[in-house]
Amino acid sequence: EVQLVESGGGLVQPGGSLRLSCAASGFTFSSYWMSWVRQAPGKGLEWVANIKQDGSEKYYVDSVKGRFTISRDNAKNSLYLQMNSLRAEDTAVYYCARVSSWPDYWGQGTLVTVSS
Amino acid sequence: NFMLTQPHSVSESPGKTVTISCTRSSGSIASNYVQWYQQRPGSAPTTVIYEDNQRPSGVPDRFSGSIDSSSNSASLTISGLKTEDEADYYCQSYDSSSWVFGGGTKLTVL
């Protein structure tokens, strides 16, 4: 059974940093692109970033470029999102997703709140 | 860059059929596959349609997807509506190396 479990969310002040993790199991992690998608409270889904199987290609939505970094550790079956210079508008539930051309499996999400 | 526009909300009675549209603002709807996701309150999204009209295993055949080049839109049709279908539905497609989501449609089954 495919499982994706996010962790690392919490309350952080504007300008602060946070690192999200996503533990994957039930599939060959190193064979799939992976993604982060977020959802602000009461709002729709917004794609954040994608990473290739070997980490050699990474893509980001314009609003997080230069502030967020997606990475992975295939030996640990884990996906990460390093978030720096956080803003109030980054407040959202962050989902990790497995990519089979489209995001076919999603985790349950972790809430990030940016507030003073 | 393009946008995907969905109606904010739709409602229909149990047993009826509802169609949710997703209109692409520029470029051809047929140039990139469209997916549809269902999200119930407090839950993560799940795929109900991928690659325009394909259903993942476990998704009932009451769910179907299509694209219409004349209106430059994709559609999700749910027939034989059940109360359990009440949820938010999002369309999604691709723009170069990025993903684009529609704003979501709240389906009420009353």
UniProtKB/TrEMBL annotation, chain B:
InterPro entries: Ig-like_dom (IPR007110), Ig-like_dom_sf (IPR036179), Ig-like_fold (IPR013783), Ig_sub (IPR003599), Ig_V-set (IPR013106), IgV_Light_Chain (IPR050150). This is IGL c275_light_IGLV6-57_IGLJ3. Residues 1-98 form the Ig-like domain. Residues 51-74 are annotated as: Disordered. Residues 64-74 have a biased composition (Low complexity). It comes from Homo sapiens. One of its GO terms (cellular component) is extracellular region. The lineage of its organism: Eukaryota, Metazoa, Chordata, Craniata, Vertebrata. Keywords: Immunoglobulin domain. It comes from the Eukaryota. The keyword Ubl conjugation does not apply. The keyword Methyltransferase does not apply.
